Amino acid sequence: MEPRINLMTNPIGAKVSKRFYNVGLAIQESSLPKSLQELVELRASQINGCGWCVDLHTKEAAAAGETALRLNLVAAWRESTVFTEAERAALALAEEGTRLADAHEGVSDETWAQVSKHFDEDQIAALISLIAMINAANRFAVIARMRGGSYAPGMFAGLAD
């Protein structure tokens, strides 16, 4: 199955992608740990079935120092002992924020309380933005049929304005 469109070579797609990347840079510059950002993006991408994004965030997480054990257990984080309480709160927020249509209340008060316990307001703003952006990225990639397997860490570093 070939990609339907190359958003990086299409003039409109490239313009949107560049701006999208720059929003991501603002999130990366927050005090939210890089490895946590990658775990959150990986989990949302797994839920959304985005092979391109699972490939990207697995490799970026490994480059940020994540272990194979933790990466392999992200999909089953609730049944794992390798994640901190803060990471578990962020992963719960990622799941609930990704599965909005599946939950009548969206993000639960319990999850919000756990997130608020472990993160300050700037970090929460970064988490919310991160979850929104990865869900959008998953949709770009799935709709365009971008396939996983060819990503190399840092390959988009030249996109910034």
UniProtKB/TrEMBL annotation:
Carboxymuconolactone decarboxylase-like domain residues are 21-96
Do you know which Gene3D superfamilies this protein is assigned to?
AhpD-like (1.20.1290.10)
Stored Pfam families: CMD
What is the name attached to this protein's record? Carboxymuconolactone decarboxylase family protein
